[in-house]
Amino acid sequence: MKVITVRDYNELSAKAGQLITDLIRSKPDCTLGLATGGTPLGTYQYLVERYRAGDITLKDVQTFNLDEYCELPRCHPQSYYRFMHDNLFQHVDLQAENMHIPCTEGGDPQSQCDSYNTLLNSTTVDLQLLGIGSNGHIGFCEPGTPFTRETFLTRLSDKTRQDNQRFFNSLEEVPTTAITMGIKNILQARSILLIASGRGKAECVAQMINGPITEQVPASALRQHPNVTVILDQDAAALL
Q: Has 67 been annotated as catalytic?
């Protein structure tokens, strides 16, 4: 696990964005695993800027998102489908047929998990972008998730829902379930890039890097992968 500490969020976003830009340039038909939440916003803005400058094209790139809320239609402002379109997809030349996000509208949740898992197992993600939850979750794999788990329907922990309340009007509006890649899916990527910013992430980052490898800290599973880069700002690295 390679750990890089930078000064602040802007430098973190530029560093992560440059690593993804370098991959796209070297492999224009690469497959990216993408994350949502507040932390990747600056990274996606960097990619949009590189695209607008003519430095990269995403027309042959494929993307697979980590997760999606259940209980929200895709048109909802806080769905991850909308998040990705608003913050990245509609600003670049990524082709619609190459965008993959778990579908949680209609149908049986288990069959939706199975369909997404089949897609994931039919390709290899070149770079998986991750954030980390304050309880150590990656994707929506909450503490206690077996490392062998593949795409599944998960119940969000109280801590995760409280952390995500800032995106909603009230805690009651925050979904209670989601479809997420499993830890096994995440670890199948050729390379993994985890980014974390802010003092609120310092404890879970320290547990991920220096604590025991345990299902109670899902992100600690990343230490079993041979090619992981972690980029932290100074606040997130405060307890290392």
A: yes
Residue 227 annotated to the active site: no
Is 135 one of the catalytic residues? yes
- The overall average pLDDT reported for the chain is 97
Of 231 and 73, which is predicted with more confidence?
231
CA distances from 172 to 72, 90, 166 (A): 13, 30, 12
Tell me how long the chain is. Answer: 240
pLDDT, tens digit (0-9, with 9 covering 90-100), for 122-179: 999 999 999 999 999 999 999 999 999 999 999 999 999 999 999 999 999 999 999 9
Single out the catalytic residue among 117, 135, 164, 185.
135
pTM: predicted TM-score of the whole model, two decimal places: 0.96
Give the Cα separation of 12 and 49 in Å (integer).
16
Q: Is residue 127 within 8 Å of residue 189, measured between CB atoms?
A: yes
* Nearest of 180, 184, 142, 193 to residue 163 by alpha carbon: 142
Beta bridge partners of 228: 192
The CA-CA-CA angle for residues 121, 147, 188, to 5°, reads: 30
Options 65, 126, 137, 163, the catalytic residue? 137
Q: Which of 65, 67, 150, 163 is the catalytic position?
A: 67
What's the Rg (C-alpha) of the chain? 17
Respond yes or no: is residue 91 known to be catalytic.
no
Domains and CATH numbers, the chain: 2-233 (3.40.50.1360)
Averaged pLDDT, 54-75:
96
